[in-house]
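Late entry, acetoacetyl-coenzyme A complex.
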Amino acid sequence: LKKLFRAHAKQARPVKQAAVLGAGIMGGGISYTSALRGVPVRMKDIQPTQLELGSKEALKQLARQVKAGRLTQDKANAVMASITPQLDFAGFNEVDVVIEAIVENISIKRRVLAEVEEVTNKDAVIASNTSSLRIDDMAQALRRPQNFVGMHFFNPVPVMSLVEVIKGSATSEEVVSTAVGYAVAMGKTPIVVKDCPGFLVNRILTAYVRAFMELVAEGVDYLLIDHVMEEFGWPMGPAYLEDVVGMDTGSHVSDVISAGYPERMPPLARDALRLMVEHERYGQKNGIGFYRYE
Ligand code: CAA
Ligand code: NAD
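Prediction complete; structure with ligand written out below:
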C-alpha cells in the first residue's frame, strides 16, 4: 500500500481546503474527520437543523478526544473553528475538493453536482460519496467529468478506515491520485475500484442484506438473526446495521443493485427495507427502525 500511495503522491493535487455537501450521517463525519486531520471544511446543507446536527456531532467527538487526552481543548477549538457550517456556496471558488454526501438519488445528485461545478474553480476535484451509483452515470451531468471521482467512505466515518476511490471512464489519473492522497491525509486506507453499481463492498454487503430480507420474508424473527450474527462474531447483525446506515439509504442502494444486476439480484417480492421506509422507520436517524432509540 505504501508503494501505491507514493506513486499517487507524485501527481496528487494539494488539498488545503475542502467542502462537503450534506451534514447528515456521512457528510457530518467526513467534515469532522477532514478538519481533525488539518484540512478545513465548508459544510453545506439545505436544512439548518442538519447543520446543527453535523456541528453537534463534531463537538461530541472532539470532547471525547479531549477527555481521552488525545487533544488539548485549544486544539479541539481550532478544529471546530475550521468547520464552517453554511447554507450557501460561499467560498466554494476557493476549495480544492468538494465531497458530495446528499441523498442516494441519481437525478438529485446530477442536478446538485452540476450546480457545484458552476461555483468551483476549473481545477477543483468533485467527489461523490455515493454508495452504489455509477460515477459515469453522474458524470453525464458535468462539463468537466475529468475532475469527477467517487470517494466512498464508510459509516461511522471517524472509525472506519476503508475508502473506495472510484475512477469513472473520464476521470483523470491526477484526480484519482488527489482522491487517494486526500483519503490518506484523512487517516484512511483507500482502494481504487471499478465503476460498477455498488462498487466492491456494497456488492457484497447487499447480497448479505438481501439474504437477511429473504429470511425475514420466510418468517424468521429479525431479532434472532441479529443475535445469531453477533454470536457468529460480527459486531452487529443486519437489522441493526440497516438502522445505523439509514433505511432510506439502504433501500436506495438495494434498488440500484437490483437494477444493475437484474439476473442475479432481481427486485425482491417482499422487501423489508422498502416496507420500513413506507412506515417512516428510517433507523437511528429518526429514532425508530428495526429498533427504537432514545
Ligand atoms: N462515531 C465515532 N466514533 C465511534 C462511533 C461513532 N458512531 N462508534 C464507535 N466509535 C469509536 C469509539 O468512541 C471508540 O473510540 P476510542 O477507541 O477512540 O475510544 C472506538 O470507536 C471503538 O468503540 P467501541 O469499542 O465502543 O465500539 P465497537 O466495538 O462497537 O466498534 C465499530 C465500533 C468499529 C464502529 C463497530 O461497531 C463496527 O464495526 N460496526 C459496523 C460498522 C459497519 O459495518 N459499517 C459499514 C456500514 S455500510 C456503509 O457504510 C456503506 C454504505 O454505503 C451504506
Ligand atoms: P443523510 O440523510 O444522513 O444526510 C443527507 C444530507 O444531505 C441531509 O442533511 C440533507 O439535508 C442534505 N442535503 C440534501 N440535499 C442537499 C443539497 N442540495 N445540498 C446540500 N445538502 C443537501 O444521508 P447519509 O446517510 O449521510 O448519506 C449521504 C450519501 O452518502 C448517500 O449518497 C449515501 O448513499 C452515502 N453513504 C451512506 C452511508 C451510510 O451508512 N449512511 C455510507 C456510505 C455512503
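The first helix runs from residue 2 to 11. Will revisit in the morning.
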